[in-house]
Amino acid sequence: MTRPKLHFGAFLYTPGNHSAGWRHPDAVPQTDMHFPWYVEMARTAERGKLDTIFLQDTAAVGGSGALDGTSPYRPSQGRQVHLEPVSLIAALAAVTTRIGLISTATTTYNEPYNLARRFATIDHISGGRAGWNLVTSQVEDEAGNFGFDRHVDHANRYERASEFYDVVAGLWDSWEDDAFLHDKQSGLYYDVDKLHFLRHRGAHFSVRGPLNVSRTPQGRPVVAQAGSFDVGRELAARTADLVFTAQTVIGDGRAFRTDLRSRAERHGRAPEDIKILPGLMPITGRTDAEAQDKFEQLQELIDDRLAMTSLARLTGDLDIYQYDPNGPLPPLPPSNAAKARQALIMELAREKNLTIRQIARYLGTSQGHRVVHGSARSIADTMEEWLLAGAADGFNLLFPFFPGPLNDFVDLVVPELQRRGIFRTEYEGRTLRENLGVPVPPNRYAASRQGIRS
Ligand SMILES: Cc1cc2nc3c(=O)[nH]c(=O)nc-3n(C[C@H](O)[C@H](O)[C@H](O)COP(=O)(O)O)c2cc1C
Fold first, then answer.
1. How far is the CA of 265 from the centre of ligand 1 (A)?
2. Domain 7-450 indexed as CATH 2.40.50.140
3. pTM above 0.70, yes or no
4. 150 C-alpha vs ligand 1 centroid, how far in Å?
5. Ligand 1 centroid to 104 CA: how many Å?
6. pLDDT tens digit string along 55-110?
7. With left for phi above 0 and alpha for psi between -120 and 50, is residue 88 left, alpha or beta?
8. Is 377 exposed, middle or buried (0-12, 13-18, 19+ CB in 10 A)?
9. Which of 107, 135, 158, 243 to mutate to test the pocket of ligand 1 (most atoms within 8 A of CB)?
10. What's the half-sphere exposure (Cβ side, CA atoms, 13 Å) at 278?
11. For labelling, which of 292, 321, 357, 371 has a CA lying 20 to 30 Å from the CA of 433?
12. Considering only CA atoms, which residue is closest to atom 29 of ligand 1?
């Protein structure tokens, strides 16, 4: 039997996923806006044969607390600005050749025709390496930039997201693979039987189609998803090729992956067609002791009150600052932002008996994702354990700052994983689908003519 292999995303959340990472002596805070840094980081990830870069997004100035100068914490937070990621992956497509390029785009504050067109275009530009991370907008601040007083309700967001996906996927099938004849003799540019109108009419969208971009090199760009509350899981099981998640304990990882794979089967899909990548922040040293020092150096930079801003985001309408930071986490009102994440944090606090301050520091380190510090061997050990236990198909790699820790992973951990035979030494294919090992969905119209289920 062939050994399963890991898949990796490099989560380029510049200037770093650690709340104080940008202040580290080796950090380059300008990685948030400076294009040449993204080129270098994408090429480093490609040198390490990682499957894809993965770009988060929020359509609002980042951070939490008021922007009007009354929040004492806001001016110390990183990631206030970043390059718009769909435009960014288009540019990176031109300076890389093999690595996947996944960008987040929200279904809550976008129109499906525009997004279908942009991602299809980037799939063409990149020769089949584009991916769309479909989100429903975690951060409530986005609402005010799109004509709303309040964030759209969680259930409504998912209803819209589900229909949004159907429209986008439908538009991506507008043209069959061989629709364009370019026949100079007959004068036929395309075969009229291979062009299809979507004529979608639903609760949220009315879209005639067809898309004015031909079928893409991957058939469709890869679809990634990150919501993990019940409706989020259901949408992912039906539609996603890849799921970015946040379990920190191997048992929870296995339960989540098993649940998603069986939900996918209920939607008529093969379980291996959906890849589950929990987030993981590796802090790599030449020895375990060196990695421990690196970790402690980072933790010393955390300001407790500032770290509480990440927690404040998950506490909904409750003002967490009025509670004693050395006391337990009070019961939280339901969140309209990220229900699954809120549930994970409450469970962790209860299980480990953590104080508000301890939870805040934990979130400030990696936004609640698993942190592993150690030598290449120790990091490879835990990755191998999760892979073989069926708790992950790989990891979305978070870095405390850029670019050093990404280089460390590629230079130290990747060779160790390759030596163990659990990570590729060469890209398997040219497209992101080929490298991830997920199928090309057949064009629905061609498939129905041939009697294949799409
Ligand atoms: C690991 C992870 C990453 C996410 N990344 C983004 C993002 O980049 N932008 C965004 O607007 N929402 C992001 N989300 C939010 C989800 O799209 C969703 O709106 C939110 O998690 C609420 O759904 P849930 O309750 O199902 O988790 C992310 C969620 C998770 C769990």
1. 23
2. no
3. yes
4. 17
5. 10
6. 999 999 987 777 777 777 888 889 999 999 999 999 999 999 999 999 999 999 99
7. alpha
8. middle
9. 135
10. 30
11. 371
12. 226
Paired tokens of 389: 């236990």
**Ligand 1 — pocket residues by CB below 6 A?**
56-58, 104, 106, 135-138, 226-229, 232, 244-246, 279, 338-341
Q: Where are the domains of the chain?
A: 7-450
With CA atoms as reference, report the closest residue to 376 among 442, 330, 423: 423
State the burial class of residue 259 (Cβ atoms within 10 Å of its Cβ: 0-12, 13-18, 19+). middle
Angle between helices 154-172 and 230-239 (to 10 degrees): 10
Q: How far apart are CA 108 and CA 59, in angstroms?
A: 11
Find where tokens 């090429």 sit: 43
CA of 337 to the centre of ligand 1 (A): 8
Is the model's pLDDT at 10 over the cut of 60? yes
| % of the chain at pLDDT higher than 90 | 80
Task: Tell the residue number behind the tokens 């999760």, with chain if given.
Answer: 386
What is the arithmetic mean of pLDDT over 154-164? 95
Ligand 1 centroid vs 227 CA: distance in angstroms?
A: 5
Ligand 1 pocket test: which of 61, 138, 228, 230 has the largest number of ligand atoms within 8 Å of its C-beta? 138
Let me know: does 398 contact 14? Beta carbons within 8 Å.
no
